[in-house]
Amino acid sequence: MTDKFGSVPRLNPSQRSAMPESDESTSRVVRRTLPILVVLMSFVALALSADRVIRSGYFTIQRVEVTTRLDVVDRAKVERSVWRSVSGNYLNVDLGKIEAELEMLPGVYRSVVRRVWPNSLAIEITETHARAEYRQAGLQGNVSGGRFINLAPEYVLSVMPVLEGPSAYREQLTETFRAVLPQLMRVGLSPRRLSVSHSGRWELELATDATLTDSSFLLLLGREDIRQKAERFAASYPDALANRAAFLARVDMRYANGFAVRWVDAADQERYQLAARTALEN
User: Fold this and answer.
1) CA-CA 20 to 30 A from 68: which of 50, 175, 222, 270?
2) Is residue 90 a contact partner of residue 61, using CB atoms and an 8 Å limit?
3) In whole angstroms, what is the distance from residue 264 CA to residue 272 CA?
4) CATH for 73
5) pLDDT value at 18 more than 70
6) Are 211 and 158 in contact (CB under 8 A)?
7) Residues 122 and 138 in one domain
8) Are the CB atoms for 127 and 107 separated by under 8 Å?
9) How confident is the model over 203-212, as a mean pLDDT?
10) CB 272: neighbour CB atoms within 10 A?
């Protein structure tokens, strides 16, 4: 209702109290939800803007710099590997992916990739001379090599060890070798070959002297508890076998306790000696 001048008259308190309760409830709901809607719309607008910036052609990576001195690895190979692994721009590039690719290069033990504002990547490389070769065993018995696994730089190996087995065992081969290497080298043994067959039987070839490539013997490890057996042998070797290491042919660790030793005598005749009479595993 308006007065003669066309303006809406103000309601006095008694008239306002006479307003329907539903109108007051609606008004309160509007006052409460309006700030939430504003915040939500602002967040959506910000997210859309950020997505537009990230997906745009801005912030492209234009420079890759290797900040450490390289003696083992070719610097150009490192840079090419980084560029091949770069996807996205400065804001969303996957640094972990780049590091993983770098650590597959022969001689790269560890890599660290950092962003440098506004358009660069800085690469730090820890090199190593110690490497193992992975050879994949096929179903027909053929073996393909040429893949390398970088070992910790503190190891000095005169001969590159070989890890051999089906592709499904590659990760387990690598982890097992890295786990048992310290214990074996600590007692003067140099691992030459760690292999696993398609049936899951593990064998480890060890050299008794790092300078004699033909002075080696075989460690039979069976199918289970491979690390524990290798570590148990390393613990027993100094006292039980080290003084006759040149005559070792095979050591069978497939026993719950102890092991069986096969010796080679001066006449090249092989014979077994059981170090502990226990049940042989299947």
Assistant:
1) 175
2) yes
3) 9
4) 3.10.20.310
5) no
6) yes
7) no
8) yes
9) 78
10) 11
pLDDT band at 267 (very low <50, low <70, confident <90, very high): very low
Kindly state the tokens that stand for 216. 């080696």
Residue 239 lies in a domain: yes
Domain end (from 111, 127, 143)? 127
Quick one: tokens of 97? Answer: 């992916």
Is position 237 within any domain? yes
* Chosen domain end from 127, 150, 173: 127
Please tell me the total count of domains within the chain.
2
Identify the DSSP state of 256. S
Q: Residue 196 corresponds to which tokens in the numbers above? A: 């696993």
Are 69 and 192 part of one and the same domain?
A: no
Q: What DSSP string runs through 92-143?
A: T--HHHHHHHHTTSTTEEEEEEEEETTTEEEEEEEE-S-EEEEEEEPTTS-E
Q: What is the pLDDT of residue 275?
A: 56
Q: Which residue has the higher pLDDT, 183 or 26?
A: 183
Residues 156 and 221 in one domain: yes
Tokens of 263: 């010796």
Domain interval for residue 80: 63-127
- The residue type of 240 is A
The Cα–Cα gap between 162 and 79 comes to 28
- Dump pLDDT digits (tens) for 209-223: 654 556 789 999 999
Q: pLDDT confidence of 234, banded at 50, 70, 90? A: very high
pTM for this one? 0.69
pLDDT digits (tens, 9 = 90+) for 114-158: 999 999 999 999 999 999 999 998 755 556 666 889 999 999 888
CA angle 139, 140, 141 (to 5 degrees): 90
| H or E element at residue 172 | helix 170-186
Sign of the dihedral through C-alpha 175, 181, 184, 190: positive
Q: Which residues contact 219 (CB under 8 A, 6 or more apart)?
A: 203, 204, 205, 206, 230, 233, 250, 251, 253
